[in-house]
Amino acid sequence: MAKEGKSKTTSKKKEEEISGAAAIIRRLRESTGENRIQFAEHVGIPVRTIDDWENGRRVPPDYIPRMIAYQLELEKLKAEMLEAKQAEAMKEAEAASDETTNESDDEQA
Questions:
Q1: pTM of the predicted model as reported, rounded to 2 decimal places
Q2: DSSP states of the chain as a string?
Q3: Given this model, what pLDDT does residue 104 score?
C-alpha cells in the first residue's frame, strides 16, 4: 500500500513537470509568432522534439527552456540596438542634409 501512494505522488509530480515544461516551451514559441517548424529551425532543435515537448510526451532538460529564453532575449536586444543605431544614423543624415541646405541658402544670399 505504501508503494502505491508513493508511486501516485511520483506520477503526479512527473505530470506537473511535463505540463509545466510544455507550457514554457509553447509560451516561448508563441512569443516569437512562429509555428513549430519555424521555431524549431530558429532555435536549432528538431521539430519532432519541439512537438513532443509541447504535447507532453517528453520533458526537456531543465537548461533547455532557459537557453531558448536567453537566445530569444539576446536576439531581441540585438534588434533593439540595431534599430537605435539606424535611428541615430537617420538623425545624423538629416542634420547633415539640413547643414548642406543652410550653407547653399547662405551662398545664394
A1: 0.69
A2: -HHHHHHHHHHHHHHHHHHHHHHHHHHHHHHHT--HHHHHHHHT--HHHHHHHHTTSS---THHHHHHHHHHHHHHHHHHHHHHHHHHHHHHHHHHHHHHHHHHHHHH-
A3: 63
